[in-house]
Design goal:
single chain, 7-stranded parallel β-sheet, alpha/beta, 347 residues, Rossmann fold, 11 helices, 2 domains
Length: 347
């Protein structure tokens, strides 16, 4: 049996073992494809009943060994397991760090595999929490499935999925190419569907064992998902669609205890999405003539800061506080939560 097939089978076993150990998720399960000496031997069909005997290491025939260990409560997210897409830098990196700082085991997933590996190592060293990295293309179904399987095999399950990966291609109707329009849609809209499809699978398995268990799917949306964006319609359209997916997924997944919510940040002016000197939005908006009279990047920045009643761009900590609220709030799903400094207010 190939390793990828073994991991696929293990990803269906580990979440149930984890919840058998602790219905609150205060347990970890690590899968390895080899046979560990002293591990209790069993089959795929019998592995759950064997665990009831208290074995700490179980070898499943032709699959591998599951090592089960307790997680001690302490930080607010102790025992939780999360994936954050697009987390090698920017908002995603800040979110991954925040989750780890609060006791959560994290998978740093990003197209930039080397950057993801470096960020995961940094998180592990800085916060003393286990973090892994996965090179992942969120528009590719096999890549997303592998991302989830790798996380479940490393930690034993999944509690929080943060759909953060996103791109922007700004331009007027005359300037926008079909290729760029479809690229934005594939990353900012379609990928949310693909990622949610696979992320909820271990969450559902955990719910089977622990009927009170709850999990979270969180889309990092945008204020552009709440109101149109001039000469940025590809992005705004995808983000509007993301809120439609959020509400629809919330209805479908509520019976499984999976909450689905969106966070709609204001402009992250200090992040690479805006400030990259070649592809950032400051440059794109200046070149697209989106800001009337702007001659420099500083003019573009001042224009957007002036739109915010609280006078500044959105910061990573503003978004992470909203994430913690969503996870801790057990009675809210299908919501789009603005974090815009008052720039966008709900009617």
């Amino acid at each position: 049996m190939e390793l990828i097939e073994k991991k696929s089978i293990a990803a269906k076993i580990a979440p149930k073992l984890r919840m058998l150990c602790s219905a609150e998720g205060l347990a970890g399960v690590k899968f390895t494809a080899d046979k560990k000496r002293g591990a209790k031997e069993t089959t795929v069909e019998s592995v759950l009943s064997v665990y009831e005997g208290g074995a700490e290491e179980i070898y499943v025939e032709n699959v591998g060994t599951f090592s089960i260990y307790p997680v001690y409560p302490g930080a607010s997210l102790a025992g939780k397991i999360a994936i954050v897409t697009g987390s090698a830098q920017g908002f995603g990196a800040g979110i991954a760090e925040y989750l780890a700082a609060n006791g959560c085991k994290v998978c740093v997933a990003d197209m930039n595999a080397a950057g993801a590996e470096a960020k995961a190592a940094e998180i592990s060293e800085k916060y003393g929490i286990e973090a892994i990295s996965v090179g992942a293309n969120v528009t590719d179904e096999e890549s997303v499935k592998n991302m989830v399987d790798e996380t479940v095999c490393a930690f034993g399950g999944l509690d929080i999925f943060v759909n953060n990966a996103g791109i922007v291609r700004a331009g007027s109707l005359e300037e926008m190419t079909k290729q760029n329009f479809e690229l934005v849609t594939s990353v900012d809209y379609t990928a949310f569907f693909i990622c949610t499809k696979y992320a909820v699978q271990p969450m559902k398995l955990q719910r089977e064992i622990a009927p009170e268990y709850m999990a979270d799917v969180i889309e990092i949306n945008s204020k552009s998902g709440l109101e149109g964006s001039n000469k940025n319609f590809a992005y705004a359209g995808a983000k509007f669609g993301g809120i439609g997916l959020t509400q629809s997924f919330a209805l479908e997944l509520a019976p499984y205890g999976i909450k689905v919510n969106a966070i709609c940040p204001g402009n992250f002016l200090d992040g690479p999405l805006w400030s990259d000197p070649e592809k950032g939005l400051f440059v794109q908006y200046l070149n697209a003539g989106k800001v009337p009279g702007a001659k420099t990047i500083a003019d573009v920045r001042a224009f957007y800061e002036a739109k915010v009643p609280l006078g500044r761009g959105c910061r990573v900590e503003d978004v992470t506080r909203a994430i913690l609220y969503i996870v801790e709030q057990k009675y809210e799903t299908g919501q789009a939560i603005p974090v815009t400094g008052g720039q966008t207010m709900l009617n």
